[in-house]
UniProtKB/TrEMBL annotation:
RNA-binding listed as a keyword: no
Transmembrane portions of the chain: 39-58, 70-89, 95-115, 127-143
Keyword GTP-binding appears in the UniProt entry: no
Name of this protein: SRPBCC family protein
InterPro entries linked to this entry: START-like_dom_sf
Superkingdom: Bacteria
Alphabetically ordered keywords of this record: Membrane, Transmembrane, Transmembrane helix
Length: 333
């Protein structure tokens, strides 16, 4: 199939933007910022800005402005992310997380380049402008490396009302029987690769007991109970059992217990909600340690809220089920 000559500049912009993106990925994973890598300002903000500038530079300014400012950067970003998946450079989780940021910043890069370069009649000046945009992330990387990642501690809370007394609910939160996929229903976090919760065991009742909370694909968390107030409160510290988690389960940037993210605590609180009813609150505490905690927190907050909300929904159905028996220990995480 022949390609119209009028599309050559657009294809050139796409190919050069893709080459730039792949080189940047290699550089930030293996080069100057191995500690932060892709979770750095320079990569997440600077590289897509460079992509946008390159796309706008090689797409003639006599073309439709939407094609030059929006569509050229968009297709370059999409091609890069598809290549990252195809060649297993990144997992689906990371691709989904960085896509909105790359899309916004690449469009901004195209707009900034056009604003600065278009009024300049000299092609050499335009080339210097796009070179500056492309090189800036690599020049900024060593400077960013001088700053430690800030720790940001966040709390995510979910609440549900259950038509059952506290005595029944309590038996359902201290241990968990196996949860089937159909019990949880479908969620976006399944599509992007987060393992579903499976079950949790309890060594004994009371402070000092240990719960082993397991998820799909060998993910296990060791939860040590440090608050045990029957019918009122169950709280525990959380440590991932790294010995059981296969290296392919999580991308290194989102692994729980890694240098960028960790889940530290979980707490159930039972509150009276009327005769024979209980309000069950589940909240957790997480640590984020990136240079873009404000953005990463949007995603971790959503994922944790989705996980907790689905678990509470399972608990509600089990507590309110016709065959509920206080002698059968069924719980959430």
């Amino acid at each position: 199939m022949k390609i119209a000559r009028t599309r050559y500049p657009f294809l050139l912009a796409l190919c050069l933007g893709l080459a730039y993106s792949l080189f940047a990925h290699f550089f930030f994973v293996n080069g100057m910022l191995p500690e932060n890598g892709l979770l750095s300002w320079a990569f997440l903000l600077g590289i897509p800005t460079g992509i946008g500038a390159i796309s706008a530079h090689f797409t003639p300014d006599n073309r439709n402005s939407m094609r030059r400012i929006v569509w050229a950067p968009f297709w370059t970003v999409m091609t890069f992310l598809c290549a990252a998946l195809l060649f297993h450079l990144e997992g689906m989780i990371c691709v989904i997380i960085i896509f909105p940021l790359f899309l916004v910043m690449s469009t901004l890069g195209a707009v900034l380049y056009s604003t600065i370069a278009d009024p300049r009649p000299d092609q050499t000046d335009k080339t210097l402008v796009v070179a500056a945009f492309a090189l800036l992330p690599f020049l900024a990387a060593p400077l960013e490396n001088q700053f430690n990642n800030p720790d940001d501690f966040r709390r995510v809370e979910n609440t549900i009302e259950i038509n059952a007394p506290a005595a029944v609910v309590w038996q359902h939160i201290i241990r968990v029987a196996p949860i089937q996929a159909q019990d949880l229903g479908h969620s976006l976090i399944d599509d992007i690769g987060f393992p579903r919760p499976v079950e949790a065991t309890l060594t004994h009742e009371g402070v000092g007991s240990v719960r082993h909370a397991t998820f799909e694909r060998g993910v296990e968390f060791i939860e040590t109970v440090d608050e045990w107030v029957p019918l009122q409160r169950l709280s525990f510290s959380i440590v991932p059992n790294t010995a059981t988690i296969p290296p392919t389960t999580f991308d290194e940037h989102v692994i729980v217990g890694g240098r960028f993210f960790d889940v530290l605590r979980g707490t159930y609180e039972l509150q009276p909600a009327g005769p024979g009813r209980t309000r069950l609150v589940l909240h957790s505490r997480q640590r984020l340690s990136t240079h873009l905690n404000w953005y990463a927190g949007l995603w971790t907050g959503y994922v944790m809220s989705e996980i907790q909300g689905r678990i509470l929904a399972v608990l509600k159905r089990r507590c309110e089920g016709p065959a509920v028996s206080a002698s059968v220990p069924v719980a959430g995480f």
